[in-house]
Design brief:
about 190 residues; alpha+beta; Nucleoside Triphosphate Pyrophosphohydrolase; 4 helices; globular
Length: about 190
Amino acid sequence: MENKQDINHILQAYLDQFQHEDHQQLLHFLKRNEQLYDRKNFNGHITASAFIADAGAQQMLLLKHKLYDRYLQPGGHIEKGDSSVLDAALREASEETGISVANLIYIPVYSIANVPLDINSHYIPANKNKNEKEHIHHDFRYLFVYSGDKKIKVPPSEAKDAKWVSLSALAEIEVSIVAKKISRLLL
């Protein structure tokens, strides 16, 4: 798993590409925390997610989140067995969609392979059922292409629903910056 120095290197490579993006919240977190992945670190923690495009690069797969009741990309917490944040994104993508890892092709978007397509820091409300306080997820988002047909069966334990959404429609569901990045890379 990447250590703090590795994550700072990944973040710097990312910021070299997207100098206009503001990641002060993540930089502040990295300066003040050693437990980068611990989901019980309520100062925040790094998570991983996957944008999954179809083979024709026309649509992206979104899952209806069970808790938030919104369509989002698959993703979640880093686990001890993950060798990297990228590995965690691939594992989460497979677990949450039911798609075999063999059918998910990672698309490196920069010369450094483990630099994500997007980084997003966002607020997570307290969850009394899990005894979790409010905190921040610093989500490292990677791009994959799905090589199979679009008839997937999402495990009901993972999501309420799944749908393929056109890249042009992504702007309407709060991921317009990511849609532009994906379009530029795949089209």
